[in-house]
Amino acid sequence: MEHRKKRKGHVEVPKELTRSRLLSLSDKAVWTVLQSYNFFNTKNGLRKDMVFPSYATIAAEACVSKRQAQKSVDRLIEVGLVRKSQNRNSGGGGLTANTYELLPFEESEVAKASPIETLT
Predict the structure, then answer these.
(1) The domain that contains 34 carries what CATH number?
(2) What is the rounded radius of gyration, in angstroms, for the C-alpha atoms of the chain?
(3) Nearest 10 degrees: CA dihedral of 9, 3, 30, 33?
(4) What is the pTM of this model?
(5) 78 within some domain
(6) Does 51 reside within a domain?
């Protein structure tokens, strides 16, 4: 049985995100999972704000289905929290892992929403 090294650390979640009605609970969970990889990358010398977990990993860690993880990533893109790049094999083959760029929260639609849109 393979044992993966556990990531340590924490994710800081803006209050406006937790209270937002623009995002579902699944969207918030997926955002948190993506942010947790950002912390891991920073600690390991990889580029900050660029993460690349698979949809299966995102789904498992956010406790949602793979399809819901895909929908949540799409929603995070819509509101300006994430940008996704699809990588291709160098030999011209099919797609490989997606890369997610984590965009500044302050510039997202969620941060700019009126208080009524962000109250729970």
Answers:
(1) 1.10.10.10
(2) 15
(3) 20
(4) 0.79
(5) yes
(6) yes
- Domain presence at residue 14: no
For residues 25-41, one letter each, b for 16 or more C-beta atoms within 10 angstroms of the residue's C-beta and e for the rest, the string is ebbbbbbbbbbbbbbbb
State pLDDT tens for residues 75-117: 999 999 999 988 766 666 666 778 999 999 999 999 888 665 5
Q: What are phi and psi of 115, to 5 degrees?
A: -55, -35
Q: Which two tokens stand for residue 89?
A: 């094999």
Q: Are 104 and 82 in contact (CB under 8 A)?
A: no
Dig out the tokens for 9 from the structure: 């650390």
| Three-state DSSP string of 10-67 | CCCCCHHHHHCCCCCHHHHHHHHHHHHHHHHHHHCCCCCCEECCCHHHHHHHHCCCHH
Q: Domain span at residue 93? A: 21-113
Q: Among residues 58, 60, 110, 62, which one has the least CA distance to residue 84?
A: 58
How many domains are contained in the chain? 1
